[in-house]
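> call design_seq(struct)
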């Protein structure tokens, strides 16, 4: 696969192609083990990021370039794997995720506390509106509110927790073939519930289409819950056509033949282009007694020189 076809894949074709895998050699891991700090907590401000960026670029620049090729110019995703990554300390793995994010772009705050690296684990929030990364629930196919999302595994739980990925272009192709009468709905403006993450002075919703075709490229932004709740948050309701469009999108995106599935192991990380890759998560279970508690780290990144986006599609940069 190359060029535009690289972004249009099925699970079988991507597994056969293997272009999403970035394998770190034993020598590279040994160098990381020597140079990465044993303990690390990511700063929550831009000044802290600027202090770390030169060292991160020197240590991780070559690996970041290997990630950026498939993420930005290929299939839209990269999974970093390699023998020995699991032996790095939690602090080293935290720096690895944050440092790569600094080279790939600008890590953004993901919650009101300003965290640039958040823990993805079941906090048993007891709140139906809790954000998905704080629960063990299954998550439907969606994109995140950034140019690139990075996730690194510290530990898996006792069962479940695999991720599934789908090409937005392949989903679009199926929708065009099967329900052409609904496709216009994905290009209209929808109201998205931003779940209280908006900047001061902005509203509780974001107006954006699901699909946008601009500068010769198809872009996608999708999150079922935010779309279904957004209309009510804005004081309206979804039309019957909108509901049908969402239902069909979700049915197509979860078809097994379109999906690539992968369960990260300790030390492995995945990097996703949020305009071309949809991702989901199966529910998982922890076993606290044995210490098998699923714990991933996540970063959201604005690229230094992000892709060209239509004005109506770029607005999340102004909200989050």
């Amino acid at each position: 696969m190359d060029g535009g076809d690289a972004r249009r894949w099925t699970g079988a074709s991507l597994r056969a192609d293997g272009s999403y895998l970035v394998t770190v050699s034993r020598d590279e891991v040994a160098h990381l083990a020597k140079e990465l700090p044993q303990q690390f907590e990511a700063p929550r401000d831009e000044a802290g990021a600027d202090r770390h960026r030169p060292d991160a670029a020197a240590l991780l620049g070559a690996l970041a370039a290997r990630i950026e090729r498939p993420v930005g110019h290929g299939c839209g995703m990269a999974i970093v794997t390699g023998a020995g990554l699991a032996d790095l300390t939690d602090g080293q793995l935290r720096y690895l995720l944050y440092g790569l994010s600094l080279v790939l772009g600008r890590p953004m705050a993901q919650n009101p506390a300003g965290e640039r690296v958040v823990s993805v684990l079941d906090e048993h929030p007891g709140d139906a509106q809790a954000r998905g990364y704080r629960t063990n629930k299954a998550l439907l196919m969606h994109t995140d509110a950034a140019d690139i999302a990075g996730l690194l595994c510290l530990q898996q739980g006792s069962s479940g927790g695999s991720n599934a990925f789908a090409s937005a272009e392949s989903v679009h192709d199926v929708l065009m073939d099967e329900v052409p009468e609904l496709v216009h709905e994905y290009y209209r403006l929808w109201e998205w519930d931003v779940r209280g993450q908006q900047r001061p002075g902005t509203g509780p919703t974001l107006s954006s289409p699901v699909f946008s075709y601009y500068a010769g490229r198809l872009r996608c932004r999708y999150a079922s819950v935010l779309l279904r709740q957004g209309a009510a948050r804005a004081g309206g309701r979804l039309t019957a056509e909108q509901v049908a469009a969402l239902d069909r999108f979700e049915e197509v995106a979860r078809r097994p033949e379109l999906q690539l599935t992968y369960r990260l192991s300790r030390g492995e990380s995945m990097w996703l282009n949020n305009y071309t890759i949809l991702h989901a998560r199966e529910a998982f279970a922890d076993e606290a007694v044995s210490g098998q508690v699923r714990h991933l780290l996540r970063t959201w990144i604005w690229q230094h020189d992000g892709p060209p986006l239509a004005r109506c599609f770029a607005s999340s940069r102004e909200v989050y």
